[in-house]
Every structure is written in C-alpha cells, then in structure tokens.
Specification:
124 residues; alpha+beta; six-stranded antiparallel sheet; globular
Length: 124
C-alpha cells in the first residue's frame, strides 16, 4: 500500500478535509485527486494535471466518485463561483446550494490550490 492510500485511510477516520487518492480512469493511468471537501454526497476536488500552463483556479464537483465529466466551477478574484459547465448534471436546486458553499469556503479552496500548485490565476 502506498503512502497516499495510508494517508487516506488515516484521514478518513479523522474526518480530514484533505485526502490524496490514486485513481485509474478508463486507461488514462493513475491520476491524483486532491479532495478539498465534501457537500453531502458531492466531492469538491481538483486534478493534479490541471494543464501547463496552469488553468485558472477552479474545482470539479461530482457525486460519489471523481469523474472525467464532472461539473466545473471557476473561482473568481472576488471569491464567487462561476459555473463553467454542469457535465455531471447536478440538479439546479442542489447546484445552487453547492455554489453558495463553495463561495463561502473560497479561502479554503484558494489555500489548497496554492499549497498544491504554488500559484493562482483567476478566470475573472
């Protein structure tokens, strides 16, 4: 068992907000997914391969497990959530709640992004 999975198991029991998981998605090899937090059954996370040059700060949202077709939400300079797409088809009433929570916790998201990538750029 590698370090990331050991860390995940120990963090899961202590309800940590920062988990590193190894995933294998449709033959793309192992990807790493830092999970920022959960909202009910929805995961709020970003991928470690967010392109080069680094994309503007954003999160992915999917229910249950990370998905290549997750909903994408940009974080603006003012801490607002800007819906890029709703590929995971989250119902509108749930999406509004998720957006409000993401906006309320934008400092947590920005810190995790900066800790992981070392730089932040904003979409707007």
């Amino acid at each position: 068992m590698d370090f990331r999975m050991k860390r995940f198991r120990s963090c899961r029991s202590s309800l940590s907000l920062w988990h590193i998981l190894s995933l294998n998605l449709q033959g793309k090899g192992a990807l790493t997914m830092p999970q920022i937090f959960k909202i009910g059954s929805y995961l709020i996370y970003f991928w470690t391969n967010e392109n080069d040059p680094l994309e503007p700060i954003h999160v992915h949202v999917s229910e249950g497990v990370p998905s290549e077709h997750a909903t994408k939400i940009w974080i603006t300079k003012r801490g607002k959530g800007l819906l890029c797409n709703n590929n995971s088809r989250i119902p509108n009433h749930k999406l509004k709640t998720i957006l409000k929570i993401i906006e309320a916790r934008h400092f947590d998201i920005e810190k995790k992004w900066m800790d992981y990538f070392g730089e932040i750029h904003y979409y707007c």
